[in-house]
């Protein structure tokens, strides 16, 4: 985001967090904000009107009132006014911010229920399953198929197997990708979770599944090394043979056997 949008996001975030702190129905708020993003994305006229930096904030607040009063909750309307009245560098910045607030409302609901860690794990694993299955990836990415049909496919795969919040975000990523690939949408959702929870995320690849104790020890070690809290997502890849590879931020710590064999081969070739 450019400067004006960064300032707008910071200002509107204060309104959003205030609504969350007041004890709003987070699931309903998320549903309503996702719906409004869909309305904005579907109307070039509306996008221009709400993001027009030359229009006074009061006028855009009135626009929000006219369009959405009685159609969304009072709390959602407060958030919309908080977003619409700011000055944005681009229309996309405004809608992206609204989407992020919807995602964060889902994560906040998972936090209250003590399911936030599980949500992150499940969403990450589902993205990996989709990435590894070309047929499933094609079915979920087929924009020629009705969005509801793609969403129903996600529900049939995940219902009663994941948290309600995971299902909401997985369906949303498929039903309304907003021009992005599925993996990019999920990546954005997980980044939103990490930011909200003030933690870093590490992706750990190993030849065999890690136990809960293994994950806890890795998380503690990485937290000591990088500071703060670290959430560990795991990938099982038999090709690494042994050891682990850790990706955190822009850094890669590769202690796998296959890497050591490759290094030995290169040394012998030299």
Automatic annotation (TrEMBL):
Protein localization: Cell membrane; Membrane
Annotated coiled-coil segments of the chain: none
Superkingdom per UniProt: Bacteria
Swiss-Prot/TrEMBL keywords: ATP synthesis, Cell membrane, CF(1), Hydrogen ion transport, Ion transport, Membrane, Transport
Recorded family membership: Belongs to the ATPase delta chain family.
InterPro entries to which the protein is assigned, alphabetical: ATPase_OSCP/d_CS (IPR020781), ATPase_OSCP/dsu (IPR000711)
Purpose of the protein: F(1)F(0) ATP synthase produces ATP from ADP in the presence of a proton or sodium gradient. F-type ATPases consist of two structural domains, F(1) containing the extramembraneous catalytic core and F(0) containing the membrane proton channel, linked together by a central stalk and a peripheral stalk. During catalysis, ATP synthesis in the catalytic domain of F(1) is coupled via a rotary mechanism of the central stalk subunits to proton translocation.
Protein name per UniProt: ATP synthase subunit delta
Annotated membrane topology: Peripheral membrane protein
